[in-house]
Amino acid sequence: MSDRKSYKKWFFLAVGAIAILYLVFFVIWFSRNPASNFVESVPGMDKPLPGVDNVQSENVKIGESFQRFSDETSGLKNTWNCFRGANHDNILKTDIHINEDWKTKKPKIAWSADMGEGYAAASVYAGFVYVLDYDEKLKADALRCLSLTTGKEIWRRWYKVRMKKNHGVSRTIPAVTDKYIVTLGPRCHVMCLDRPTGNLLWTLNLEKEFNTEAPFWYTGQCPLIDNDVAVIAPGGKSLMIGIDCKTGKQLWETPNKRNLKMSHSSIIPMTIEGKRMYVYGAIGGLAGISAEGDDAGKILWEFSSSAPSVVAPSAVYLNKGKILFTAGYGAGSAVIRIGKKNDTFEATLVQKLTPSTGIASEQQTPVFYNGLLYCILPKDAGALHNQFVCYNPDDCSKPVWSSGKTKRFGLGPYLVINDKFLILNDDGELTLIKASSTGYSQIAQVKIIDGQDAWGPMAFADGYLIIRDLKKMYGIDLR
Amino acid sequence: MDKKENKKNDSGSKKSMNRRDFIRLGFQAAAFVSIASVSGYLVKKSMDEDLVWQIDPYKCTQCGRCATSCVLNPSAVKCVHIYIMCGYCNLCSGYFVPNVKELNTGAENLLCPTKALKRSYIEKHYYKYDIDRELCIGCAKCVKGCSSFGNGSLHLQIIRDLCKKCNQCSIAKVCPSGAFKQISASKAYLLKSGWKG
Questions:
Q1: What is the pTM of this model?
Q2: Residues of chain A contacting B100 with CB distance shorter than 8 Å
Q3: Which of A33, A206, A431, A455 could cross-link with A234 by S-S, CB 3.0 to 4.6 Å?
């Protein structure tokens, strides 16, 4: 009996000891912080040390120098006078015969001209090519006027500005009319010239005068001339400004209350509900600004539900008041509808898409042609990546057709000439396809240049297709 | 007399090459050839270079299996950075999550799950990106981002001093793109070539 009691006593003692031991372990374990050696990742861990930031402030004398190399004149008439051509849509109808049999007659490189590293592309006006190059030897932005037929430089106006390569330097396309040329340089320097003579009319330093923050990879916005008014979106203290090309006087200004920032996108004029407006995809959102009448410069509508951190493609007007706003780097697209309610414009989201669920573009602006949207999808678009894809704007998630997995393209430009798409691949391969609503139909393909990063938008006038790669511009005779 | 003796000796020697001698001689010759072959093979093998497994960065599809299929944990596969190809961009698609809203070091903005990819400020718009090898698990998320939108300067490699040199690499068995291949140990790495620009 006593043995049994003793056994019980020891049993309870053992259980109690184990329980106490467990309790001690539990308290130690519970009181210990398992994340004690974690390091928080919070904003600001990559900030410069005091005194490290060495941003150069320099006094840039915009348009300070001019050189004329020849007095060549031209009898040519055709133009491609700004980014995406006269109608801002990358579509051209022309009577000029374009050779499509590239097997027997390959498009001929009529000329080439060395360029500073970048993607700045050409405008063409009556036989002259205008390009805002960055001259790496002079360390200067240089507006160069070249002959459309020979590529010879006729004149240049330039100004010194120190730049470091940041995926190239130059990116913009001049806006050209019969009287004026307006340029926007990589560091937001604006220059307006008299086109026939190259004389300097006026200048603007957007960083200094509007507190513009130049986008990383430098300025990509191509300026616009609309009825002799230069239209520019500085960001900073003014979302958009209109300046008289003749006098340089600021005609109107759009306050930037929401602090939208300059993007790589360009201003596109559109007419919606009978109202002409400038549509600009800034960093922070899309906005429509009145382009006419007493309220020129007034914000008509804004859309900020889709606000990518970087925007390169410009807005595309579709139909029925709908606009496509797309961006790369995973952002995808938004289709929005602009409507009018009680004399007030409203922007409503129709469709939001990611690169893997619908249309998206990283650099080039999609083309809306004959009621359909055409686009090269980015690398993060799943199985359709890098394919040339056609969408119905009523549903931008379902491709009407795609070029297929054996026909992929890069970040290069594309445009429509006479119902045919011309697509330039990164490495200089040119492809001609039918602008078909039913399927991918390739007419011809040729490696036209031995290029790299041939991303600058193309221009076409008088039978010459102007293309460029990272370091050279080419005039291609397509006739 | 001498000639006769010589003839006798000759015929005697011919007689001595009987079947048993022939077989013995055959075995001796075979043994010699075998020893010579084995020695030659061993000499040749010792002169041959070792083969090691490595990833062809141009074939890699960043599927993420390198992080989970290696016999080591964390994997012997790590990200390497070819600085000459890097754009030193502020918006780095290998560093930030897609469609990032704020370009800062807040954890919600960063792509690397272990914070192995770090950046430091150089000057306005320019950042230097470095990989902390101790933290990298070879998940290839940064590589995918860099390949999709950047210059492709980040890519995966098997780190030689970590690799256990398995005869059959367990990641190679599951690699869907055939990016794993055996290369000379003297070469050891398959790094991307420099930027042409």
A1: 0.83
A2: 309, 329
A3: A206
pLDDT tens readout for residues A77-123: 999 999 999 999 999 999 999 999 999 999 999 999 999 999 999 99
Evaluate whether A169 touches B87 at the Cβ level (below 8 Å).
no
A positions 297-316 inside 8 Å of B (CB): 307-310
| Residue B167 and residue B83 share a domain | yes
Closest Cα partner for A284 from A255, A253, A257, A324? A257
Domain contains B56:
yes
Rounded to whole angstroms, the Cα distance separating A111 from A475 reads 5
What's the rounded Cα separation, in Å, for the pair A278 and A298? 10
B59 and B115 within one domain: yes
Q: Which residue in chain B has the smallest CA separation from A327?
A: B99
- Interatomic CA distance for residues B158 and A2, integer angstroms: 70
**Cross-chain residue pair A46–B104, CB shorter than 8 Å:** yes
Per residue in A138-194, pLDDT tens? Answer: 999 999 999 999 999 999 999 999 988 888 999 999 999 999 999 999 999 999 999
Q: Distance (Å) from the C-alpha of residue A54 to the closest C-alpha of chain B?
A: 6
- Residue B19 and residue B55 in one domain: no
Residue A459, classed as helix, strand or coil, is strand
Predicted local confidence at residue B196, as pLDDT? 44
| pLDDT value at A68 more than 60 | yes
Mean pLDDT of chain B: 87
B28 lies in the same domain as B87: no
ipTM: 0.72
d(CA A157, CA A161) in angstroms, rounded, equals 13
